[in-house]
Specification:
CATH architecture of the largest domain: 3-Layer(aba) Sandwich
CATH class of the largest domain: Alpha Beta
Structural class: alpha/beta
Number of strands: 5
Largest sheet: 5 strands, parallel
Number of helices: 11
Shape: globular
Oligomer: single chain
Radius of gyration: 17 Å
CATH superfamily of the largest domain: Response regulator
Distance between the termini: 32 Å
CATH topology of the largest domain: Rossmann fold
């Protein structure tokens, strides 16, 4: 397994690296200390299984950095490991394509579980952050929806929000129309909607139409 680990604090990286090596029998960790060096590392490293980013690093704004990284390396799942506990940051990062958000105060067991979930195709957001804002908070509800969807379902929902037909979604994601229909059925169930129009409205609220 190959992991890109970008954080501008060397001591923090040294503390987390032994934990990352527990993810697989053989783990190669590629380190970066800011956004520019993370991009450079990706260009020379080849295929990377997962990228772990501190949100606030030199080189560019954190949201911008994650957005650009996802646009440049769309096949690499991104997880943010941050000290921020602002739900606004989480929402923007999910919209940018991040598949996980872990606070630096998390336990080692939780960090490992979150990374394994993302590697398995899921999305991780700490429930504790959502609960602080109550069940009536729209932002929290949107994040909970994103948490329930797999990364592939998020991709299908994004294409759906663009007005794409099942055939167009299949071509864009390199899958069959039958697979798209299966994903849509799961998406409708998770979003608690009855049709494509209602699903698109939810996707727009989540910012997935951007």
């Amino acid at each position: 397994m190959k992991i890109l680990f970008a954080d501008d604090h060397p001591l923090f990286r040294e503390g987390v690296k032994p934990l990352l090596r527990k993810l697989d029998q053989v783990v190669e960790i590629i380190e970066a200390n800011d956004y520019p060096s993370a991009f450079d590392a990706m260009h020379t490293a080849g295929e990377v299984d997962i990228a772990l980013f501190d949100l606030f690093m030199p080189g560019m704004d954190g949201i911008e950095g994650i957005t650009r990284f996802r646009a440049t390396f769309p096949d690499t799942p991104v997880v943010v490991l941050s000290g921020s506990e602002q739900t606004e940051d989480i929402q923007q990062l999910l919209n940018a394509g991040a598949l996980g958000y872990i606070t630096k105060s998390s336990s080692t067991e939780l960090i490992l579980s979150a990374l394994r979930l993302v590697l398995a195709g899921g999305i991780y957001v700490p429930h504790s952050l959502l609960e602080r804002h109550g069940n009536g908070n729209l932002l929290a509800q949107e994040i909970q929806v994103a948490y329930a969807l797999t990364s592939r379902q998020i991709e299908v929902l994004r294409e759906l929000a663009k007005g794409q037909s099942n055939k167009q979604i299949a071509v864009a994601l390199n899958v069959t129309e039958g697979t798209v229909k299966i994903h849509l059925a799961s998406i409708f169930r998770l979003l608690k909607v009855n049709n494509r129009t209602e699903a698109v409205l939810v996707a727009q609220k989540m910012g997935l139409d951007h």
